[in-house]
Amino acid sequence: LETKELWDKFHELGTEMIITKSGRRMFPTIRVSFSGVDPEAKYIVLMDIVPVDNKRYRYAYHRSSWLVAGKADPPLPARLYVHPDSPFTGEQLLKQMVSFEKVKLTNNELDQHGHIILNSMHKYQPRVHIIKKKDHTASLLNLKSEEFRTFIFPETVFTAVTAYQNQLVS
């Protein structure tokens, strides 16, 4: 995880990410670099964002903290965000950082733009996946037959909000 210091600062406060109907970019942005990849191989890099638990939260201003406010809303359709520059060569991945700055978060369940759909006042964990692409693979339909790794950075957990709740985060 690149810009880890920034993520750590937000994590201490309780990271919040704004979601809007039209889609909003993440801040901080997920940026990663890879090592140990085969320079000759091709890789697909993607991200998804999954619920941390089955709870809904509310922000208690008098305590400046997030409290459990009940059971989670039904989960929204899970979406994978395939990095637009995929597939990468292993050589590219060894030399450059992969940035997910174009990912947008929305609360619009009918979104047609490929944004990641989240429920407000719920906690989420972004995950980065790297898949070694086989020459004969045209699509990602069967992940079980592919070589892949998933990376989870606990400091990137966030609460989806329509407006910042904690003054220190804004």
UniProtKB/TrEMBL annotation:
> Which key words tag this protein in UniProt?
DNA-binding, Nucleus, Transcription, Transcription regulation
Q: Output the InterPro entries linked to this UniProt entry.
A: p53-like_TF_DNA-bd_sf (IPR008967), T-box_DNA-bd (IPR046360), T-box_sf (IPR036960), TF_T-box (IPR001699), TF_T-box_CS (IPR018186)
Q: Which GO terms fall under biological process for this protein?
A: cell fate specification; heart development; positive regulation of DNA-templated transcription
Chaperone as a keyword of this entry, yes or no, is no
- Top-level taxon of origin: Eukaryota
Which SMART domains does the protein's record reference? Answer: TBOX (SM00425)
Q: Write down the CDD domains for this protein, in alphabetical order.
A: T-box_TBX20-like (cd20193)
GO MF, any single term: DNA-binding transcription factor activity, RNA polymerase II-specific
Q: Where is the T-box domain positioned along the sequence?
A: 1-170
Write down the PROSITE patterns for this protein, in alphabetical order: TBOX_1, TBOX_2, TBOX_3
The entry's localization annotation reads: Nucleus
What cellular component GO annotations does this protein have? chromatin; nucleus
- Record PANTHER family: T-BOX PROTEIN-RELATED (PTHR11267), T-BOX TRANSCRIPTION FACTOR TBX20 (PTHR11267:SF190)
Q: What name is this protein filed under?
A: T-box transcription factor TBX20
